[in-house]
Amino acid sequence: MIDHTGIPVSDYARSKTFYEQLFATIGATLLMEVTPEQTGDGTWAAGFGRDGKPSFWIGSDARGVAAHTHIAFVTDSRAKVDAFHAAGLAAGGRDNGAPGLRPHYHPNYYGAFITDRDGHNVEAVCHLPE
């Protein structure tokens, strides 16, 4: 239902590297980068996604970083959830929920949570059994 979403980041280059490392684990890549000249407002933007469609964006934003943003990215295996969490930690994120079942959502909900360096809570989730 969601076409795309975006979040502001405090350090564009650092965050771009973080998300490139994180998304490699779930098959998403940097697909598009928009320069300050193209945005017209002096900001940078990077779009990540799959199959040629950027659906998650980060952008430098002079207005500041929003607190407590949560975004979950679906993947097709529990192993990819595990890899997402490990890559997030290796890239400088903080653990916000180790990989595991969350049966209070539904019996097969397997997720992991990372807090990025701006405090955004990013999650990988697999809804499939084993």
Automatic annotation (TrEMBL):
<dbReference type="InterPro" id="IPR029068">
    <property type="entry name" value="Glyas_Bleomycin-R_OHBP_Dase"/>
</dbReference>
<protein>
    <submittedName>
        <fullName>Catechol 2,3-dioxygenase-like lactoylglutathione lyase family enzyme</fullName>
    </submittedName>
</protein>
<dbReference type="InterPro" id="IPR037523">
    <property type="entry name" value="VOC_core"/>
</dbReference>
<feature type="domain" description="VOC">
    <location>
        <begin position="1"/>
        <end position="127"/>
    </location>
</feature>
<dbReference type="InterPro" id="IPR004360">
    <property type="entry name" value="Glyas_Fos-R_dOase_dom"/>
</dbReference>
<dbReference type="Pfam" id="PF00903">
    <property type="entry name" value="Glyoxalase"/>
</dbReference>
